[in-house]
Amino acid sequence: MRVEVHLWSGLRSLTGGLEKVSVEAASTGELLAALARDYPQLAPVIEAGVSVAVDGRIIASSLTEPLGPDNEIYLMQRLKGG
């Protein structure tokens, strides 16, 4: 199924300025793989670590979190600091 993903502002330059993209994915793992495949410029950022928020909840490390077309999904660069 297709899901719509909102991109954090720092990631938009890697998709030609798009604020939202649509990919085929049924889980967070499939989402990340589809984004890296369909938007190769995102692959290094995804490999370095990103956060996925689904309906306002950060999915910390689960790649099996189910997704559906009605979910509000955001892809964000992982925040680093000390």
Which architecture does the CATH hierarchy give at level 2?
Roll
Strand order of the largest sheet: 2-1-5-3-4
Q: How would you state the average pLDDT, rounded?
A: 94
Number of domains: 1
Largest sheet: 5 strands, mixed
Rg: 12 Å
Separation, N- and C-terminal Cα atoms: 39 Å
- SSE string, helices as H and strands as E: EEHHEEE
Q: Helical amount among residues, as a percent range?
A: 10-25%
Helix vs. strand class? alpha+beta
Quickly count the helices. Answer: 2
Describe the structure.
The chain is an alpha+beta fold and 82 residues long. The protein has one domain: Beta-grasp domain (Ubiquitin-like (UB roll)). It is built from two helices and five strands, in the order ββααβββ. The protein has helices spanning 28-38, 43-48; strands at 2-7, 20-24, 50-54, 57-59, 73-77. A five-stranded mixed beta sheet has the order 2-1-5-3-4. Strand 3 (50-54) and strand 4 form a beta hairpin. The protein is globular, with a radius of gyration of 12 Å. This is MoaD/ThiS family protein.
